[in-house]
Amino acid sequence: MGEDPEREFEAWARSRQRGFLRSAILLTGEQTSAEDLVQDALLKVADRWSRLRHEAPDAYARRVIYNGAVSRWRRRRRETPTAELPDAGAPGRSEAWLAGADVRAALQGLTPRQRAVLVLRYYDDLSEQQIADTLGVSTGTVKSQAHVALRRLREEFDVMTAEEAR
Amino acid sequence: MSDLREFLDRGADGATEVDLVEGVWRTSRRRRRNRRLGAGSAVAAVAAGAVVVSQWGGAGPSPEDLAPAVDTGVVTSEPAPVDTLAANQRFLDGIRASGVQFDYELMESPGYAVGGGLQILVGEVEGVRANGHHFVVTVEVEQSIPDVQVAEHVDAFLEVETLHDLTQADLDAVGGQVLLVLPDQPRNVHLTPKVFPAVDGFWLDVPDGIGNPYVDYSEMGSDWPPVDSVAELSGMLSETHSLAQAGEQVQPIECSASWQNPPPLNSIGLTPAALDTANELVRLAAYCDEAGLIARALADGTEVAVGEGEVAEQLAIPDPNRAYVRLEGTLAVPVDSEPGLHAFELEGWRVVIASDGRWVEFTRE
After folding, report:
1. Which of B1, B3, B24 sits opposite A46 (nearest CB)?
2. What is the pLDDT of residues A72-120, one digit of tens each?
3. Which B residues, 312 through 331, put their C-beta within 8 Å of a C-beta on chain A?
4. Domains in chain A with CATH codes
5. Cα A109 to chain centroid, rounded
6. Beta strands of B183-289 (E only): which ranges?
7. Alpha-carbon distance B303 to B280, whole Å?
8. Strands B336-338, B341-346: parallel, antiparallel or unpaired by DSSP?
9. What b/e string do you get for B352-363 counting C-beta neighbours within 10 Å, with b at 16 or more?
């Protein structure tokens, strides 16, 4: 890494923002909240860049995003129970976005922890130990939550993991 | 059959490409500066006698700095927040007013709670309903202590002698974090929702702390450190359980003992004794609760402000290398100095010490 922390941070952040945003969308089911979560995570990483630049900024950012997603989920279910995701049918969205609405809705049917395990394991390709560290749970919980999440997903969709495909 | 990775990818396809980085560094720099400027007001609040969880004025993103990711042109209005804490208090008061005869044995210690064959569940209140001479509280389970697979929802029965006059609207407003202590472990996750006949403990967040319809937390005895929220209570019990599992002897967590000797200062603001105190404070922060730390500091004439966020958030920052216990490396070099004050920052921690030896700020972002 170079000498200028600002440039280092921005280079790191720009290389990660797209991946973080896509994961956050899967966690929240909508783009606006996902953007807020990622921007908040980037801000917190920036606050701690002097330490994190030498350690694990990605892991830290993922945990901030996950915790933020859970907090938003709690607030939302207390305040505004809605049958439809806020931007599910927003005008001007691409066909690809609209075509993924069933995926986002299916994920929203899981508990926050199941959703996080599923995204971290099968989308971000983290190991069970890395997920356990990120979520602050045991690897046993990661396994069980992944199992339950997959089972619930398969009640509606015919999907298989990469391991199963081999 | 489709690939799960591709399936998930489809859920994020078509997302609008946005720049989320623009302005982040500048905002972060401003936040750091504002925290330094804001320290005075936080200290004043603590000095007035309140136990303060400070909401730093500069902690939030500055709208003029952070570039909006997407300008939708739509002004969204936040719904009026439900005063959950007040509703929880009304609920507990209502049960107490119903004439329930307390037949509740206090748990002797955190060690007993996590090791006495009891099952602790932490989650969110999903609903409350009257059922005969009981209230049934449905909980969406988020955590189990010990960490075993349990049902996703449980129904806890709260015994009441006579039903009282709480309305359904009152019950609907009950919410937030809850901690249950169950006498029997739920073993079959497929029994959903599982109904338990009673609970050994039931804790809800209420104004200024936590509440239980059957007993005040403050009656729990000296082995229980003071806590101000269900999150703190569950965190403390989790920690107790982890220590027990690690084979370490679980000692009562004494957060209220006072520091006997404020740290002396040298020309740059710190001495080895002061560094020891810093490390001791940080070590305690890993095991103890905010209120206890604050009480301990206040008892010694020290003024402490705690940064924004829940204690679990502050202390569970991803820190695989336990970096927060290595304060001294940076504390030896002040980052800022104002007349009569010495400020030190490391890894999200900020410590400000006055020239007379008082710790005037101790925060974790």
Report:
1. B24
2. 665 554 444 444 444 544 556 788 899 999 999 999 888 777 888 899 9
3. 313, 316-318, 320-321, 323
4. 1-79 (no CATH), 99-166 (1.10.10.10)
5. 15
6. 194-196, 201-206, 209-211
7. 16
8. antiparallel
9. bbbeebbbbbbb
